[in-house]
Automatic annotation (TrEMBL):
The lineage of its organism: Bacteria, Pseudomonadati, Pseudomonadota, Gammaproteobacteria, Oceanospirillales. Its EC number is 2.7.4.9. It comes from Halomonas beimenensis. It catalyses: dTMP + ATP = dTDP + ADP. Phosphorylation of dTMP to form dTDP in both de novo and salvage pathways of dTTP synthesis. GO terms for molecular function: ATP binding; dTMP kinase activity. CDD domains: TMPK. Belongs to the thymidylate kinase family. Pfam families: Thymidylate_kin (PF02223). Coiled coil: none annotated. One of its GO terms (biological process) is dTDP biosynthetic process. This is Thymidylate kinase.
Amino acid sequence: MSSRGRFITLEGGEGVGKSTNLAWVADHLMHRGLEVVRTREPGGTPRAEAIRGLLLDPTGEEPLDADAELLLVFAARAQHLARVVRPALERGAWVVCDRFTDATFAYQGGGRGIPPGRIAELEAFVQRGLQPDLTLLLDMPMEAAQHRLEGRLDRDGGTRDRFERERSDFFEAVRGAYLARAAEAPQRIAVVDADRPLAAVQAELASLLDDCLESWG
Ligand SMILES: Nc1ncnc2c1ncn2[C@@H]1O[C@H](COP(=O)(O)OP(=O)(O)OP(=O)(O)O)[C@@H](O)[C@H]1O
Ligand SMILES: Cc1cn([C@H]2C[C@H](O)[C@@H](COP(=O)(O)O)O2)c(=O)[nH]c1=O
């Protein structure tokens, strides 16, 4: 096995099951004897979580400018990469992250309409070539995912954050941008049909992970 760890990201729209499956992916890898760091974006360090708070807070009179939103996402990412992701990969740990830069192309690119080239410039500046080794894109129709999200909010007594309050055309654009990105990078991004019972989704995730474990040695 290489001395550098591996970087695995989970992506998808709201309510598709990322958090549920992130925990499961981390357990699956730990059972194979790997050191696993489980984290998320935006966030993953105290200061990056504070930026997450700014991004997700739905209250207040002042709308957040789309360019400011993009820069906040990358500011949080720079902090997260410096404090958590790069050190973990350098010591040989596997990092399993709930969302990363594909989310920026999907939400700020597809959803807000920021040109992908501008996002790619910030990606190059902040990541300096670092990319996930594998991205698991959980995909399902937006209405069904919204139904799941409603169920979770009802059960947990939560309220919708700033992104979750967007309109359905925003979520359709996010889904379209994710799928377009997967079509551009099929060797890295595996599209998993999330509109199935959890056991079926996780059987496919296990197969994808075990194939990677074998091919990465
Ligand atoms: N395959 C599945 N079948 C049925 N329900 C599921 C499935 N996967 C997840 N759920 C349920 O759907 C809800 C949303 O799942 P989860 O919170 O993991 O989604 P998420 O993608 O992390 O959401 P968010 O985008 O808000 O972070 C939860 O109540 C979860 O238990
Ligand atoms: C990384 C990243 C995230 N977002 C948005 C997408 C989600 O609505 C929230 C994060 O909350 P969740 O619990 O993971 O659903 O942030 C974004 O717009 N751009 C990004 O790069």
